[in-house]
Fold:
Amino acid sequence: MSRVSALAHLEAMEAMEAMPLTRFRHRHLSDRPLVVIPLTMAGEAGTPLAVLVGESRRSSTLLVVGQPRNRDQRFAFAAEFGRIVMGYIDSCRQDRLEIPSRGEERRSRYTSAPQILVPNNGGIKALSDLGRMCRFRRTDGPYPVPAVVPELGKWLTFLVETAEQAGTSMLLPMTGLLGEHWATGQSALEDQNLASLMAWISPPDGLTVQEAMADAENPELCPPAGPATSPQFDNTYLAPAMRRFDTARATGNEQALAEAQADLRGLLSEQLNPTWRLMWTALALLRGVDEAPRAAARFERDCDSFTDYSDYQDSGDARPQPKRDGAIRAARRLSRLERALADFEADMAFDDPYVRADQRSLGEAFAGTVVAAEPDRVDITASNRRVPRPRVTVRTLDPVRLVDDTKLISPTMPPGHKAEIVSIVRDGDASLIMVEVTGGMGRARVPRPGTVPVVEQHIDYLPDPGWRPTPVFPEADQIPWTHAGDPEDSETMDPVAAGQAATEEWGDDN
Amino acid sequence: MIATPDQRLDALRGPAPRMHHNARTLAALENNPRCMLRAVLDASGSDKAAIAAHTGYQAPFGQSSFALARGNVFETMVKANGCAELLRVLRETLQLTLPEVGYQDLNDVGGDGRAESRHARTTHLLTAAARGHGSDTLYDHPMLRLVVGGHPVFLEPDLVAFRVDDRFHVVEIKSFPIVDDQAAPAQVRAATTHACAYIIALRAMLAASGIGPESVSDTIVLIAPKDFTNRPTGAFVDARKQVATLTRQLERIQRIGDLVELLPEGLTFDLAADDTGRPQRPAQELAEALDQVPATYYPECLNHCEMAFYCRSRARADGSLDVLGSAVREQLGGVDTVTMALGLARGTLTPNDDQVEMAVALRHAARLRVELHNSPGAAGAAS
Ligand code: SF4
Structure:
């Protein structure tokens, strides 16, 4: 948060409508995302109650667990949901593109990657719990399950892990996507409610933002977007319906069972449908925002990691992700997440003047007008070569806090432009920053036209995030670390423990 | 005649039965200790949920019968057969050496379920145990007392205190799971807050008999379902920091007696319920009474206090920056309202001496926003 973003929230509060926080949408959006709205049962940790899932607004599939406390019903649900998710993932594994290989690295990758959209962070947590519950299941031995159940578990776990990494787009919460682009006049806490957030961005026809906000917090008008259902709904409707279902099942009355099932489905689809419509409306709004230029490259990295994981699954000895990271895996993960965040922030700042404005108000970047230039300046290198080293002075009103010798890049100059701060001199409210252009001028002795800023030109500079070496971690064994545990994650290696994990209970069994 | 604080508090509540502190009011203590409205409503035992509902701002809370049932089933199971499962976890999972186990049910005293009697019995037994008399190890549902703002409140924890290494330990039985040795931090924190209140109350009780604070451990034993099963597992939670924080906050809470002195004579939150319990007091009048007491709203109130929707509407009407939450608030130190912040940003208001620097920064930020709005391809407002 910077003062510029804070102001956006104030403007929204004053105008009573959402205000843009960014120029672009920084996440790639798939043409064919899979929208998933999971519901879980109150009090039963991560126990699925229902899910509404589908690839288009008009075709959704509702899956319901009649009695979530019952093991068989839960696994039947997991298998059905697994078939839908795996069908979707398979549809992303149709085309592979050869890529020019540098060295021994990958030779081809899938041209697309899955994109699962859930309403909020709670939705991700629900999928994470489901992944954890399913990935250790066995297809043989006690309590066997269909093969698709552990497969679903592993894929959900993979997707949830990617979601922790900044800039990825394979599993995203809708509230997060909207909140990256729009500022509302309410708190971050309230922004986690999809209906409240949408009230600011696009209130339903005929409603003011105030009215839409009030409705959004009324569970009778706007059922929660999950994964928790509203307590009133649980007590008034769901509990009695579930009791009828249990009774019908116990007495073996086929017709009563069918009716009770239909009742439950009716109730749950009423709870889920408003959020379903909201998800697709939100998606349409986001599609109306231009995608940031660098989102495409990030999407390719998504395709890479999707291909990697997919190939690992095909390799035959695919194991479930360990329950907990060992030290090496944890250190790698942390390092990967930190890099991803730094890269994502640098990308966004380069692409987006709004994000740069944030950095400018914090003094971490600047923009201004060139007031003086020495375009013909040259330096003599250590090897006695004359190289062009033009200097220009930029006058800016930004509260610059960068220091001399900071390496700079510029999104408003041709690609490859590099510069360094020579000096910063205060001039009343303004600062005069002298920079030396060090790169992006071509190989000739005179800079290529247009590669050196000229007087009166407006220019943006930000620190060069630079190239950072990939940290080296001890190699534990041959298994690619992205897919398997370190030996110290004994859980995955020890057959006894693995066996226990497979037969572990899941709630009570009644 | 000058009314005593207790009389004033009773008058604030009116004839309705007194509400007791519960998990949520304790959490609010930790989260918003300075809110005078909440302090006064809680101390007077007023029914915040009913008050909020009557003003038209129904509290955003409710509990699912599923969660309730699950919580009860789990607690019952842990405590069944003389706490057999609990003992298994303490011995096997937490590797505690327990001597012979004696179990003491403090739920009622020979059919007397009154808080005072139960508290007296709890005090008697636990003090004796601390002195080395008695052979009990587990105390089911002891009744404790905590002094909040100079006013005693009974805490009826559904927990068990037990004696290990000559110390009492507070045991919290919760039905959220510990999955792969990890539990949701927010839930652990909330559970710890409750346990801290119990630790403080327990220490105060023993202190009255000259027994030092070291007799109560500030490590909590958390008992919760293991992974996605119904089997309990346990974990130690170090509550030292939270005990210190809560102690400090309890000390800092203004004495309720002093607070009520500041309130206008004759102020009451009485709902004037008729025979059927339906409130008859005009809602407008009730709102005016509430508005006499300063509140310090911030968005987290939505998770902790029944009055949250009411206070939020008040904060919104005032254009208070508190409605935006701390992330935005931190950028605008010393400025309280939207009107003032935007006035400074647009140069239509003159900053006072403390706001000069902030005003410069805001004007700069506002210039950047204008630049962005006017730039080609500017992101349009949503529609
Ligand atoms: S909701 Fe209102 S009464 Fe409750 S703590 Fe917040 S400000 Fe105080």
